Amino acid sequence: MTDSLLTPRMQIFAVLVLLALLGWVTKLVRNHRLSLRDSLLWQLSTFAALLVALFPRLLFWTARALQVEVPANALFTLTFLYVLVNLLSINIAVSNGAMRVRRLAQECALLRAELQRLQTATDPPASALPHERGAVR
Fold first, then answer.
1. Residue 49 has pLDDT above 50, yes or no
2. Any residues with CB less than 8 A from the CB of 82 and at least 6 apart, and which?
3. In this structure, what DSSP letter does residue 120 have?
4. pTM score, two decimals?
């Protein structure tokens, strides 16, 4: 195993990119474009990647713990698992949103029907309207 997984130049670049990503996620949360709950997965994964960029030996230890011979394969596997977790999280959020929209549409239809029922119950008959009886304002 090589001791140097990342060159110093690559390490600096990775740290800068990851810090920019953290800043962007924070800005999205502050501007209410990303919920705090949804940002948690992004922040945790970015912190983990930042730790690996700062301390590349962590990847060797992780590979050894996972019993993977090549650290790059361990990184690929963990990245694949992260994408799956993120995809599941997004699917759950979309499903919850769709259920909420369906429930709101049903409530809106019920309220509209109730409003129509109340309007027809309180409207006077057409023959009792003053303008139709020749009344002048």
1. yes
2. 45
3. H
4. 0.67
DSSP string computed for 27-53: HHHHTTSS-HHHHHHHHHHHHHHHHHH
Report the distance separating Cα 53 and Cα 44, nearest Å.
14
Evaluate whether 50 touches 19 at the Cβ level (below 8 Å): yes
DSSP3 helix / strand / coil % (the chain, rounded to 5): 80, 0, 20
Cα distance between residue 49 and residue 24, in whole Å:
16
| Whole-number pLDDT of residue 30 | 96
CB hemisphere CA count around 124 (13 angstroms): 7
75-114: pLDDT as tens digits: 999 999 999 998 998 999 999 999 999 999 999 999 999 9
The DSSP code for 3 is S
pLDDT at residue 128 in the model: 57
Tokens encoding 15: 């740290």
With 0-12 / 13-18 / 19 or more C-beta atoms within 10 angstroms meaning exposed / middle / buried, residue 112 is exposed
Q: Is 10 helix (H, G, I), strand (E, B) or coil?
A: helix
User: What values do phi and psi take at 19, rounded to 5?
Assistant: -65, -40
Token pair listed for 106: 């049903």
